[in-house]
């Protein structure tokens, strides 16, 4: 285009200062990455953290379950008797309590029925609630609503006529079958109790093989979907397979590798062929497997916890978390992801 195309020279147009500044700002913003108004700049959320440290002094939890629907752990307390919840950020809240809860031990979350089942005992570590009448005599099952924490049922186990012949009792761990029946181990008597969905209690199985004398006997228990229980005896490390339909035909699981499982406490069945076992006295979580319906068992891995008195274990998605209560006077407790 030649200069002859213009009829004359024009004066340059001066834009107001605020218009210029606005244009410059818009240009600069356009060069900054990730600054869309539709995007939020947030700190990434940690899912399934490696460990949760809970600053609750002298709570001494024994049992733990993960409540996936509410994204929280449920824990018991030997020293206070309460049932509480823990979030990933260590937020701690009380879920349930009752004056009869002297020491709460094992916990089972029956999520499908919205129930929390808790084994109740008294070994003298809760001075606010222990009495001469309950010390080493209390064995009960308390059942709470998982949403409200309301007490649904309280079932006396140690007072059953078939259990009264044994002087001492300690309700320890709980398994729930597909029909809602609960099975509770007694560590001070050679008994597995049964409580049906209506709250009717009975002695499901007793045997001299379960007797541990003055030591801790029956402890961890899990329900296998093929219709039997797997039960651990702490003082010997023996595992038992107990058919639901014919409990008297129970058998000892053969430990093919001759592995010592003494101190066996919490059990977790992660799939039909894999069982995680916590040995508190050995500060170890064992991964066990069976390819013959738990007639035989072998070890496929271990996780060393250190001297933290590990007790029980729970499943969270594809992960497992073990409880570190430390001691009855510790200023905190931890829930730690297991890594084999």
From TrEMBL:
Keyword Signal belongs to the record: yes
Keyword Signal in annotation: yes
Gene3D superfamilies associated with the record: TolB, C-terminal domain
Keyword terms, alphabetized: Signal
Segments forming a coiled coil: none
Superkingdom to which the source organism belongs: Bacteria
Signal sequence segment: 1-25
InterPro entries named in the record: 6-blade_b-propeller_TolB-like, Sensory_adhesion_molecule
Protein name: SMP-30/gluconolactonase/LRE family protein
Organism, scientific name: Hymenobacter armeniacus
């Amino acid at each position: 285009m030649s200069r002859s195309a213009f009829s004359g020279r024009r004066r340059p147009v001066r834009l107001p200062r605020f218009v210029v500044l606005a244009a410059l700002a818009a240009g600069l913003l356009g060069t900054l990455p990730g600054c869309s108004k539709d995007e939020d700049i947030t700190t990434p959320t940690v899912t399934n953290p490696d460990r949760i440290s809970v600053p609750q002094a002298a709570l001494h939890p024994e049992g733990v379950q993960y409540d996936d629907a509410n994204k929280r752990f449920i824990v018991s307390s030997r020293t206070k008797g309460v049932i509480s919840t823990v979030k990933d950020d260590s937020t701690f809240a009380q879920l349930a309590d009752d004056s009869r809860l002297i020491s709460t031990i094992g916990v089972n979350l029956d999520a499908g029925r919205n129930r929390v089942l808790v084994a109740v005992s008294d070994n003298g570590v809760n001075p606010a609630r222990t009495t001469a009448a309950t010390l080493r005599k209390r064995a009960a099952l308390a059942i709470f609503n998982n949403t409200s924490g309301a007490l649904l049922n309280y079932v006396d186990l140690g007072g059953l006529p078939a259990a009264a012949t044994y002087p001492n009792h300690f309700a320890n761990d709980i398994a729930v079958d597909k029909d809602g029946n609960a099975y509770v181990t007694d560590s001070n008597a050679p008994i597995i109790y049964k409580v049906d969905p209506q709250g009717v209690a009975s002695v499901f199985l007793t045997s001299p093989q379960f007797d541990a004398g003055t030591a801790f006997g029956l402890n961890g228990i899990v329900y296998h979907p093929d219709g039997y229980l797997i039960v651990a005896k702490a003082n010997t490390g023996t595992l038992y397979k107990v058919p639901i339909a014919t409990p008297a035909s129970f058998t000892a699981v053969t430990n093919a590798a001759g592995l010592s499982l003494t101190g066996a406490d919490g059990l977790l069945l992660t799939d039909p062929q894999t069982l995680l076992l916590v040995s508190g006295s050995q500060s170890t979580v064992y991964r066990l497997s069976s390819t013959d319906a738990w007639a035989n068992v072998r070890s496929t891995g271990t996780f060393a916890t250190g001297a933290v008195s590990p007790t029980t274990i729970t499943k969270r998605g594809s992960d497992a978390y073990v409880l570190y209560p430390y001691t009855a006077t510790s200023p905190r407790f931890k829930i730690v992801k297991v890594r084999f």
